[in-house]
């Protein structure tokens, strides 16, 4: 008896051929854009010491409280699969003293993240992010540049149904006054808040603004706006961000409910929302984290970044613009063992020379091979059997107009390279 087959882990998924072409298209579009704007790729590990995330994301956040994949390894180190990229990039920036030569650095990274959330459409336990960060720029230009990059990426991918929501979360100078005002309202609303928000109320009151539970949302309708509590510096910063976005023609909405689920944000926070995804409406989120590098043991260096939900973006792009699979330029249909051995030599030489090539490796009728070439969308088929070998000529058939020509087997590879290169 055979064993039952093993299934993948709940909340994890395979990205299969047919989808990967689209993922590559998105990835290439993003990389081109990042490079247009001078961002450099950084690759960080998918595991870090648990402390890094606990200290940066914050003990009282959903991620650290209940979503991290944390375990002790055989050497008794407490490790976590990364739930996001920013903390690791900061760690790397500090560890390699990248600030010493030039504090201004622009990075991007693309890869998997892990959060143990309840799996549903658009929400996975292993998901992917496209991430960008700017270090060392306090000026609001950095904030505007990142929001503009998101807008431009979506435009290049022909995703239109998106809105940028922006807010300011203030700084350690002005945020306490806002929290105080908010706490008054939260105390009054306590009877209708969900159990999570009751806890947040005392430990991290701003997070209540972010709660998706309808009762909490309703109770927060009359919440004060943090914009009214900003100190002069934060107010001026935010005004420059919104004015510059407007000058550049980047559409946005000021959204005073937007707080974002991580502790490290200061000043500008933003999210790209779309109507195309149903309940999981955020396709990207980001913000400024001026205190994070300092709090992780580095110098006081301002920074800002965003993360795009790659899975969600792929879902939107798939719905609007399917990406074609690259078909072989040439399919070699060989008949008989001798011809097949020759065909294999030609195919490998052509493939090595950069020509899109396919062939049938086993014994199949010409009819079956022609069908196969057709199914794969091959541009031309080279037919070679024992009689062609004898005659010294193979047949090259154009699949579009069905015309055929004979080509001499002597020097055939060079000829084909000339034809297809
Ligand atoms: P959400 O409100 O949807 O939980 P978030 O605020 O937790 O999002 P961020 O930490 O800001 O998300 O991550 C940036 C982006 O990553 C999100 O806007 C979303 O598109 C994507 N993302 C976050 N969590 C998941 C997940 N579990 N599965 C798929 N994509 C996700
Ligand atoms: Mg979340």
From TrEMBL:
Its main location: cytoplasm. It catalyses: tRNA(His) + L-histidine + ATP = L-histidyl-tRNA(His) + AMP + diphosphate + H(+). Residues 1-327 form the Aminoacyl-transfer RNA synthetases class-II family profile domain. PROSITE patterns: AA_TRNA_LIGASE_II. One of its GO terms (cellular component) is cytoplasm. The keyword Ligase applies. L-histidine binds at residues 84-86, 115, 129, 133, 260, 264-265. GO terms for molecular function: ATP binding; histidine-tRNA ligase activity. Keywords: Aminoacyl-tRNA synthetase, ATP-binding, Cytoplasm, Ligase, Nucleotide-binding, Protein biosynthesis. SUPFAM superfamilies: Class II aaRS ABD-related, Class II aaRS and biotin synthetases. It is found in: Cytoplasm. GO terms for biological process: histidyl-tRNA aminoacylation. InterPro entries: aa-tRNA-synth_II, aa-tRNA-synth_II/BPL/LPL, Anticodon-bd, Anticodon-bd_dom_sf, His-tRNA-ligase, HisRS-like_core, HisRS/HisZ, HisRS_anticodon. The keyword Cell wall biogenesis/degradation does not apply. It holds the Pfam family HGTP_anticodon. Homodimer. Belongs to the class-II aminoacyl-tRNA synthetase family. HAMAP family: His_tRNA_synth (MF_00127). This is Histidine--tRNA ligase. It comes from Desulfosarcina widdelii. The gene is hisS.
């Amino acid at each position: 008896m055979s064993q039952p087959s093993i299934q993948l882990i709940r909340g994890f998924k395979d990205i299969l051929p047919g989808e990967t072409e689209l993922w590559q298209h998105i990835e290439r579009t993003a990389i081109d854009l990042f490079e247009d704007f001078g961002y450099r790729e950084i690759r960080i590990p998918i595991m870090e010491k648990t402390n890094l995330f606990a200290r940066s994301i914050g003990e009282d956040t959903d991620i650290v409280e209940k979503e991290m994949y944390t375990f002790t390894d055989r050497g008794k180190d407490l490790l976590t699969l990364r739930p996001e990229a920013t903390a690791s990039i900061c760690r790397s920036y500090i560890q390699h003293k990248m600030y010493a030569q030039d504090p201004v650095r622009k990075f991007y990274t693309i890869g998997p993240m892990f959060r143990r959330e309840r799996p549903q459409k658009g929400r996975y336990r292993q998901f992917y992010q496209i991430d960008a960060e700017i270090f060392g720029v306090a000026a609001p230009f950095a904030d505007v540049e990142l929001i503009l990059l998101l807008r431009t990426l979506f435009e290049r991918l022909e995703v239109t149904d998106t809105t940028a929501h922006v807010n300011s979360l203030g700084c350690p100078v002005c945020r306490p006054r806002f929290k105080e005002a908010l706490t008054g309202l939260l105390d009054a609303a306590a009877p209708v808040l969900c159990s999570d928000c009751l806890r947040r109320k005392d430990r991290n009151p701003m997070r209540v603004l972010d709660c998706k539970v309808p009762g909490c949302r309703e109770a927060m309708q009359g919440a004060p706006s943090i914009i009214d509590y900003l100190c002069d510096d934060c107010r001026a910063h935010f005004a420059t961000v919104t004015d510059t976005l407007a000058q550049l023609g980047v559409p946005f909405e000021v959204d005073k409910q937007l707080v974002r689920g991580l502790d490290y944000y200061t000043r500008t926070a933003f999210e790209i929302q779309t109507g195309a995804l149903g309940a999981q409406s955020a396709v990207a989120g980001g913000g400024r984290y001026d205190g994070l590098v300092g709090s992780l043991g580095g110098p006081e260096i301002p920074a800002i970044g965003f993360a795009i939900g790659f899975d969600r973006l792929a879902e939107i792009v798939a719905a609007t613009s399917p990406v074609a699979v690259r078909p072989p330029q040439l399919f070699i249909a060989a008949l008989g063992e001798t011809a097949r051995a020759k065909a294999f030599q030609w195919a490998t030489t052509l493939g090595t020379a950069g020509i899109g090539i396919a062939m049938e490796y086993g014994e199949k009728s010409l009819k079956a091979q022609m069908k196969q070439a057709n199914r794969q969308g091959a541009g031309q088929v080279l037919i070679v059997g024992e009689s062609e070998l004898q005659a010294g000529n193979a047949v090259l058939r154009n699949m579009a107009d069905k015309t055929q020509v004979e080509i001499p087997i002597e020097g055939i590879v060079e000829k084909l390279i000339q034809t297809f290169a």
